[in-house]
Every structure is written in structure tokens, then in C-alpha cells.
Design goal:
By secondary structure, this protein is α+β, with helices and mostly antiparallel strands. It is 51% helix and 16% strand. A hairpin with a 2-residue loop joins strand 5 and strand 6. The chain starts with a helix and ends with a helix.
């Protein structure tokens, strides 16, 4: 392994975290990292010394991510139905939840999608990764006053919309299981008990997977009836596996060993009911592994 490769791999986890937080797409993040690697390797071969490899790599990756963000936004404009960030599904739910920052949670990623690309980049670099405004100005080639203004605007926007409560992972797993048992079983009464009155459902099928509503659905009765109605159309042999999606406890539904849907739920402050449901069924956004590998 060359020295340049070793240096890049030593910073890859940081680069992945920065770029994924900016894009909310695993596939796009991997492509940005490939472009960053090519730029880094070209610089290394030129013989030009890099005094601070970490700063150089973050600058390249962040700016590549900004350029890629424009392409993602164009895809979203032509997307079929609702668009949700691609879930970063970990194979082992028992892993250290601190490995994934709050910015990786589905609810936070949805909030970050409402920022402009520059606001999101500044928020991620400052609030999540602790870069000073002067450092971000150098990374993004902007003046420090402009960065401070972007940071202030993004922070106010996010703080007004971010979730105020995060449930204990064990409680969330238990409630998720009860919700899925009721949904898969078509138990309307159980669904009504477990859903909060102001619950909201988002479904992302991308025109390729089953999605039960082209728009967000609000309200306990509507959502309970929706899940109860689709019960008869569900495949007969579904396998439910509990996994972690970023900082969230989640569930992956499998059909014939292939992922069918990822469910991420948020709970009310008392932990007793579900107030947000994110369902991703677009096969392009689902994990590639199977039940045999993840059992």
C-alpha cells in the first residue's frame, strides 16, 4: 500500500461522515469519495507536498459534495412520490450508537434537506464536526462573515424543526416491533393504540417499490386505516430484522431474503406512542445484504 493510499484510508471514515451528512445518499457519498481519492492521488503523484492532509482532503470532499448536491436536487425534482434520505443501515443493531452522530438520524436528515446546500455544508462542518467559521471559510472559499451568517441562519432553521426527544433504543425497538406486528397483522385497534394522534407517515418508493402514499399522511385514524387496508396485499412470508439506521433503532422487512422496506420510527416524549414513521421501499435505497448474511 502506498503512503498516499494509507493517508487517504486513514481519513476515509471522517470523509464519509462529512459527505453523507451533506448528501443523505450512500451511493452519491461513495462516488464523491472516489472523486476525492482521484484528486488526492493526482496531487500525490505530482510531487507537490501537502502540509495538512486532513484539511486538504476535507476541502476536496466538501466541495465535491456541494457540486454533487446540485445533481441530487435535480433528481428530486423529477422523483416519483416522496423523497427521503437513503438510510445508512448497519448490519448489527448492537453496535455502538455513538458511532453515528445525531445528524445521521432520519429525522435530522429530513430537516437538513430543507436547508440550502451551502447552509447544510456550514451547519454540518460547524455543528457536527466542530470546525471554526474561519476554517469553514477556507474549506468553502468564502469570506468568514458570510460563513457566520450562513451558520446562524442554518442553526435557527434546524433548531426550530429538529426533534426535541430521542427515545431509548431498547424502548424504540420494543415499540417498533409492536407497531410492525399490528401493521403486518392488520390489527386496526392495536395500531390506533400505538400511534399518537398527530402522527405523520412518509413513504418513499421512488416509483420502483411499494409506497402507500404519494404525499405525507397525517393523523392516527388515517394512518391506521391505511396500514390495516394494505394488510391483505402484503406478501405472505415477511421476515423482520431489527437494525440501526444512523442513530436510530429501525427495522428492515425482508421478502425471500431480499430487503423490501426499511422502517424508522420516532416516539413521543413518554416513549409510549409513535409520532413519526419513515418508510423506504425504493430498492435503490435499500441495503444490499440478505437475511442469510444479517441473521
Amino acid at each position: 500500500m502506498s503512503d498516499s493510499t494509507e493517508v487517504f484510508l486513514g481519513h476515509r471514515e471522517l470523509l464519509f461522515s462529512v459527505v453523507y451528512s451533506m448528501l443523505g445518499s450512500v451511493a452519491d457519498t461513495e462516488e464523491v469519495l472516489q472523486e476525492t481519492w482521484l484528486s488526492w492521488e493526482s496531487r500525490s503523484r505530482s510531487g507537490s507536498p501537502v502540509e495538512h492532509a486532513r484539511a486538504y482532503l476535507v476541502r476536496i470532499a466538501a466541495n465535491q459534495a456541494l457540486a454533487r448536491r446540485a445533481a441530487i436536487n435535480r433528481r428530486k425534482e423529477n422523483y416519483t412520490g416522496q423523497w427521503l434520505p437513503e438510510p445508512l443501515v448497519e448490519e448489527d443493531e448492537d453496535g455502538d450508537p455513538a458511532v453515528r452522530a445525531e445528524s445521521y438520524s432520519m429525522a435530522m436528515l429530513v430537516v437538513l434537506e430543507t436547508l440550502t446546500p451551502l447552509e447544510r455544508a456550514v451547519f454540518v462542518l460547524h455543528e457536527v464536526f466542530g470546525y471554526a467559521h474561519t476554517e469553514i471559510a477556507e474549506i468553502l472559499d468564502r469570506r468568514p462573515p458570510a460563513i457566520r451568517q450562513l451558520a446562524h441562519r442554518a442553526r435557527e432553521h434546524v433548531h426550530a424543526r429538529r426533534p426535541r426527544y430521542r427515545a431509548d433504543p431498547r424502548v424504540c425497538r420494543e415499540v417498533t416491533q409492536r407497531f410492525l406486528d399490528a401493521a403486518v397483522g392488520g390489527d386496526l385497534e392495536a395500531l390506533l393504540r400505538i400511534l399518537a394522534p398527530d402522527v405523520t407517515l412518509w413513504t418513499d418508493g421512488g416509483g420502483k417499490g411499494p409506497a402507500w402514499s404519494p404525499h405525507p399522511v397525517h393523523g392516527r385514524e388515517r394512518i391506521a386505516k391505511l396500514f390495516a387496508a394494505i394488510h391483505g396485499h402484503l406478501p405472505g412470508r415477511l421476515d423482520i430484522r431489527h437494525r440501526r439506521v444512523g442513530g436510530d433503532s429501525a427495522a428492515v422487512l425482508f421478502l425471500d431474503a431480499a430487503p423490501l422496506a426499511v422502517f424508522v420510527l420516532s416516539l413521543t416524549p413518554d416513549g409510549g406512542q409513535v409520532n413519526r414513521i419513515y418508510s423506504i421501499t425504493n430498492p435503490d435505497k435499500l441495503p444490499r445484504w440478505t437475511t442469510a448474511r444479517s441473521a
